[in-house]
Amino acid sequence: MVQTSQATLLAFWLTIIVAMALNIIPWPTPALYLAPDWVLLILIYWAFATPETAGVGTAWCVGLLVDVLTGQLLGQYALAYAVSVYICIQQHKRIRQFPIIQQSLSVCIILLIAQLLIFWVERVNGQAVPLYFWLPVLTGGLVWPVVLFLIRKIRLLSY
Question: Which of 30, 39, 94, 103 has the greatest number of C-beta atoms within 10 Å?
Answer without folding.
Answer: 39
